[in-house]
Write a structure and sequence with these properties.
Layout lengths: L1 E6 L2 H11 L6 E6 L9 E2 L7 H11 L3 E4 L2 H5 L2 H7 L4 E2 L3 H8 L1 H11 L6 E4 L2 H11 L3 E5 L8 E4 L2 H9 L4 E4 L6 E8 L4 E3 L4 E2 L2 E3 L3 E4 L4 E4 L8 H19 L6 E10 L2 E8 L6 H8 L4 H10 L14 E8 L13 E2 L4 H4 L3 E5 L2 E3 L5 E3 L3 E9 L2 H12 L3 E2 L13
Parallel strand pairs: 1-2, 1-4, 2-3, 4-5
Antiparallel strand pairs: 6-9, 7-8, 7-9, 10-11, 10-16, 12-15, 13-14, 15-18, 16-17, 18-23, 19-24, 20-23, 21-22
The chain binds adenosine monophosphate (AMP) and glycine.
The site of adenosine monophosphate has 15 residues, from strand 7, strand 8 and strand 17.
């Protein structure tokens, strides 16, 4: 099967790496890709947000499966454009992707489906904002309703900061603060059958000790040795299946990857957010442990045949990833800095590898930074502790001027 992957971050590099190792994949293409993906897939300079252009590319390549990685093309209807050409596509319709594209929509679906989540108000006026902030008190949780690349959420003790963020949004969701550890649980679904993957934990804050601003994610690990072994079944029954059923009932079935961001609170599991695609960087560690070939699973979701798909196989071991980010990320990142030491990584640590996010290759062959999150370094091991040791040995080989990474990913597991 010929596969076309849309996107160009570390998540797409992880998807492409798994697909490149899959015996059922005869040719692998990616648009637009990045300098690392170019090593495993043929790149095409197509705008990922242009549905007609993506569908044209998929037709001309004879793709048997298109995998849409990021949220922006999904919300823009790229999966619909490909599906309309009769090409199997992994990724929800624009209608179903509103689960991620609008936090207010997601809250409405959860309320109807009886899915446990934080109590919330959707506000559009300063009066509504003040009332909601007052009703919940500190810590304040203020969420821009629309897509904001992981930066639309402010959690703060400071009323003034909360107010300013809320006033800067057109529509804002203000909600109750949830405490307890966070878990990311992904599920592959064809709109009816839901197949959960293994849980992972993401580190969202920029600095060690969960300090600093929220980011897209600075590192992750899987499995979660501390989690209740029944967690996945519970979330399937109380969150994932009811949400998929509700979207089908509304006439907008969700097929693709449903990502539940969860808080394990003292009162039980609560949904923090839904995403309509694989999470980044959690995908890097989840796919590192998946033994079932990826293309068949994604194709079964695209074709509506997940009900007869065999149970997934997983490695017993663990994986840890650490993100190396540009100078000033998550603020406006500095780009164009040379990245050195990439070829030393697998020599220094055979169980580690590098997945590219914001990178570009200059004509001279030099690889330079081209975005906020630059690289994800991944390592596997028998335990989280061993994978962690290995990933940091590998990270120490990579040099990026002004770059930064967290030193405490999976440290206290
Ligand atoms: P989101 O983009 O919705 O995942 O939010 C980003 C991060 O903000 C989450 O990973 C949490 O760490 C934090 N957050 C979001 N909503 C809440 C909440 N209701 N209570 C506590 N923290 C939250
Ligand atoms: N790691 C968080 C996300 O992908 O949204």
């Amino acid at each position: 099967m010929k596969v076309l992957v849309i996107g160009g971050g570390a998540r797409e590099h992880a998807l492409c790496r798994s697909l490149s190792l899959d015996p059922d994949v005869t040719a692998l293409h990616c648009a637009p890709g990045n300098a690392g993906i170019a090593e495993v897939a043929e790149l095409h300079p197509v705008d990922a947000l242009d549905g007609a252009a993506v569908a044209d590319l998929a037709s001309s390549l004879g793709a048997g499966l298109v995998v849409v990685g990021p949220e922006a093309p999904l919300v823009a209807g790229v999966a619909d454009a490909v599906r309309e050409r009769g090409i199997p596509v992994f990724g929800p319709s624009a209608e179903a992707a509103r689960l991620e594209g609008s936090k207010a929509f997601a809250k409405d679906v959860m309320a109807t489906a009886g899915v446990p989540t934080a109590r919330s108000y959707v506000c559009t006026t300063p009066e509504e904002i003040d009332e909601a902030l007052d009703a919940f008190g500190a810590p304040y949780v203020v969420k821009d309703d629309g897509l904001a690349a992981g930066k639309g959420v402010v959690v703060t003790e400071d009323l003034q900061v909360a107010r300013e963020h809320a006033l800067a949004c057109d529509q804002v969701v203000i909600e109750e603060y949830l405490d307890g550890p966070e878990v990311s649980l992904f599920a592959v679904t064809d709109g009816e059958t839901v197949v959960p993957l293994q849980p992972a934990q993401d580190f969202k804050r920029a600095l060690d000790g969960d300090e600093g601003p929220n980011t897209g994610g600075m590192g992750a690990y899987s499995p979660l040795p501390w989690a209740d072994p029944k967690l996945v079944d519970e979330v399937l029954a109380t969150v994932l299946q009811p949400t998929v059923d509700e979207l089908r009932r509304r006439g907008t079935p969700f097929s693709g990857l449903l990502y539940a961001g969860l808080a394990i609170t003292s009162r039980g599991v609560r949904v923090i957010e839904f995403n309509a695609r694989f999470g980044d960087p959690e995908t890097q560690v989840v796919l590192a442990r998946l033994r079932t070939p990826l293309s068949g699973l994604l194709l079964a979701a695209a074709n509506g045949t997940l009900a007869t798909f065999p149970p997934l196989r997983w490695s017993d071991g663990a994986a840890v990833t650490v993100v190396i980010a540009s100078h000033n990320y998550p603020g406006t990142p500095r780009t164009g800095d040379p990245i050195e030491g990439l070829d030393e990584v697998s020599e220094a640590e055979p169980h580690a590898y590098v997945l590219h996010a914001g990178t570009a290759r200059r004509e001279s062959g030099e690889v330079v930074s081209a975005g906020g999150r630059v690289l994800s370094v991944v390592a596997t091991g028998e335990t989280v502790a061993q994978a962690r040791e290995r990933v940091y040995a590998a990270v120490s080989r990579v040099r990026l001027d002004g770059g930064h990474h967290r030193r405490d990913i999976a440290a206290s597991i």
